[in-house]
């Protein structure tokens, strides 16, 4: 639709790009629609592996959850999509780069800043930001111009990629009303059998699943399918948008939530308490940067370094069970864990003397008790 | 057992105190055992309501989860138990106060500091810290002295109260081995029916459940029973003990996890992004203080004030569903939420112009982009 | 000048307001100029005491230093000025509220958000943002219209109030070039004699100086004059503006820096280590909020509460000496300090035994050493 | 003195080690005293360059100031001294390692943990911790055994190295009483002439001073001497000791304070606002770890990596003036600064339109204003 509008408004030759980041789509259908709408040329770029290895992998190292619940699926894909589009733009000698975001969403920030960063000379056009149509008016415009629109768009606004499926839209905008079952696709219950998983990590990233060496892409797909089939992986919250307001957002993210659970558990088996608290702080910072379109902020790269460094020792296996919408960590074996049974045991090993323990406790609590006394 | 030891070792008249903080116990049985073991006098103090209202309630306001998973059940009860014991000690004119912790646990820190704080003149005696017996040796000693010991103690070390049940011990000390089903009591699956809950909060604390006004004590008990019956509420992790090492800890905490989910969701519906991040920071600080025996640190009281202040507007209803070990938040109605359908809607309401949006994005990303350029 | 422009452009009846927040100005001169420029009515509002007590006082409690050096003088005054202007606007039945900020400064954010907050129905007009004149062009415009302009404006852009004097402008825009002496007014050396100060605080705010009970306004003025006369109080840094870029900013802030030194010292005498770190975190958050125009963010009010609460025990006297551009804290007497000579003394009092000390050290370092071993 | 005691108590052959970390001492005198006291063998190890390059340099990158004021001079040297002692111990086949700290100081923690880390098999002996003598009794014991003691020890307890001189002791233990001038050595005023300095940094560490390429060791010594001669570099505060209580501590640290001022200024010229805030957080964490004896905590090494990474672009020159106890930063030239005169200028360059600015402001403040409205 934007294609039509662009070619009419700017008298531009429009080159369209679809980036495959793992969404379930009929890419040849999209291509067909692009040409119908007036594209001069269409690119379909398979970026699934790159998305998995360069965007999903660091987000695993960072346990990236925006506001504690959202694994950033859409936010993570935006810089990659923009980079691919910019590559095409440069190859095609384009002067303008367009994207489909509106003026009230987060994605415009992510796209604009990615483009500014990678191709500062380009002029950015965001038709949906300029034309000022509501979603309803857009549907009308599309009809009028004879542009086919996917059915689901009528009820929900969906964004999907390897790392998650997000659902928003006016039909679920009452934050108290339960989201209708039909909105979900990845987490429909089709199996009541518990799902047992052994996930092996190396340097913070999964490398085998139930003993089978697999690419991250394969592991994520497997977990989305299998954990999703147990109804696991739904998120529903009021999200603080970058662009000033709260929005009700719903996600289907089975693989992400599972892998984070396992990864966090393994980190905890390895890190000192001081490392753990620092890492959680870094995790949150990173998530905020990525959500807020600041993929190109230097601090993001620095935190990536921190993430890699701190994941160097995150190696081992985590056992989990998914059952009826919940996951439990059942055990973990961490290669570099300071856990020592002979230290921790109640039967054997390390026991400080009474006096040593008293010494610790006295000094540990002393500042607090002296302060209380002085204020009494 | 400690009673025997104390009366033998110190030739002391031992007064024993059991504080009921919601654990499933036969208190008259305990009393009987105390007299058999040689207690001069025994007190059973019902502190359930106080525990719920003065310890559990603030922990709800603080979403208190140590290292992201443990709702502090044992840690929260220790200061209260110590305070009750100190009350008795003062009443009885005691010079010494004893507790049962060992020299390698967290609880000794919590008890010692509570006693030092409330009764600095008392001498603290911790028999298990002094006598240097392993758990096995303790069992032998008890047998020899004819002191009955609860069966379960042989396999697991259990601590239980209203807010949770904790399981530890050498039989589960291999962190990779799955905890045997027999270790669990609260979360055995006895119902496959989904549990629907509407939890109403006022000033950050639940006041009705499914429309029925109830005390916090009742609500917690109901949720432990009903969510536990769905197998919900298990936690298994390697915990960073205050006393220097990692320990495998397992918890059954259905009500705590449920209420925190609901409470956090409601907070997010109310807080600005800045408030939310500050609150999560405070939440973590508070949890660390309480876990680490610093209930009497002045900062804990200050953070409590912050918690109360920030929960003033946390009012409304959260809908949840517990199903097969998992919980989903389904919706929320928050009285003081800045969420505004007409702002958030894709159809109506607030839309910045293209130029306004561009202005925001340019300024928002400017520092980052300028920095990248200067380092290229 | 904006007056002229407003009355010409909008055919508006312009009511002008000057708020006295302690700047050295000839207010009747300003009034005269306002009428010459075409104002219908002019208000001069004395807000000095309110500025001192409601804006400077909390900033003292918060040791408010943006990026470690800037005491927020201008930033603090903006909300107050805006509130006074809005009061007049409401009284006069105005529909528009104007301010003089440009489109690249921080102040527009502070003014706009203050006005939106206090008078959401008002339309905001910022002539300098609209007309698109450079400072040079403005000078020309003013000349043309016969509007007198203060001399100094030609070289530096000055903003001044009770809490500080800020200097910026193109003549100092080379961040390596030393700022010429003529730019400074408050910190010209006129005395080489050391300045001895005893500052007494109650609830975190100065109440006497060298034993003499004085209002905060008086104390600030005294310190600006006397410490300034020793050349104390200059700040020069590259500041991260809210509006996306770095700017070279120079400040004269003798009283602010002095009072903060004393206040921080006193806080440290009172707080536990945990309180101190939390407070410094809060200090920084508060400073960022205020600098960034978020005076009306709910978190700011919450942090104010925290500030008041944590300053309740900040009471006592601090001795300082200002000498040749530097300040030294010489001593402090804090009413509620946990400092205890008999604990701290090397001769007397508290000494843990060797075993107690060893116990503390072993447990204190244990997590770290175990982790090192497991990664070796 | 400890030598005598050790050889008497343990019948040990005592090997003594003095590590030269830049303190002003007569090392051959120390050696002589060691032999008199009964040492079998004495080592004097020159570790000045290593101290400068491996301990002082990272502390510069970290702007390491404990509780905002203390540059960690003593704390930094402890791990190095311990490592040197351990090297000798291993070479000499020693089974015990001794140090001179008492049971109430911070240094015992630093020494013990360093030794445990580098030579876990060694038994640690801390005579002053074991013998239980007060400082007065020690002086008596020394006299009795004919061991010479340095004069100054009678009034103050001094620790000195390249990075600072610390003064403590009972004569200054009244925190309100001004420290007598005789306590100071490095910061006696001997020059009233302003000191002009141009300090050039590369990767966060000074490499030239006033244009002259110098080692860090030379630069620090020069600044200590020259800035000290202007009376610059005194610190006086109530310090939160690791070991549970507050202590009045006084430091002479001219070079450290000067270099930190310059370094922080340069960092601010380079970092984005997000980097700056993160770095200051890291700075504080690092300082706390080092102060608290956790040099061997894995997080310390990680933060060192962060420090090096973030200092990669901290390159350029800072101009400062020291005058009568104060320092002013006068200008800076940073190679990788995003500062751009044409962006920052009030005359030229970047100006957003009125609408763009409004867009930014509206979105920037929106969450806060919506929240206020919903709570009204």
What would you note in describing this structure?
Four copies of one chain form a homotetramer. The first copy, chain A, is an alpha+beta fold. Chain A folds into three domains: about 1-45 and about 75-160, 3-Layer(aba) Sandwich (Rossmann fold), CATH 3.40.50.620; about 165-335, Argininosuccinate synthetase, chain A, domain 2 (Alpha-Beta Complex), CATH 3.90.1260; about 340-375. Chain A is built from 13 helices and 13 strands. The first copy, chain A, has helices spanning about 1-10, 25-35, 50-60, 75-90, 105-120, 125-130, 135-145, 215-230, 255-270, 275-290, 300-310, 340-345, 355-375; strands spanning about 15-20, 40-45, 95-100, 125, 155-160, 165-170, 195-200, 205-210, 210-215, 235-240, 245-250, 315-325, 325-335. In chain A, the strands form four sheets. Chain A has a five-stranded antiparallel β-sheet with strand order 9-8-7-12-13. In chain A, β8 (about 205-210) and β9 form a beta hairpin. Chain A is elongated and about 85 Å long. Chain A starts with a helix and ends with a helix. In chain A, about 55% of the residues are buried. The model of chain A has no long low-confidence stretch (mean pLDDT about 95). The interface between A and B is large, with 104 and 103 residues. Chains A, B, C, D: It is found in: Cytoplasm. Chains A, B, C, D: Belongs to the argininosuccinate synthase family. Type 1 subfamily. Chains A, B, C, D: Pathway: Amino-acid biosynthesis; L-arginine biosynthesis; L-arginine from L-ornithine and carbamoyl phosphate: step 2/3.
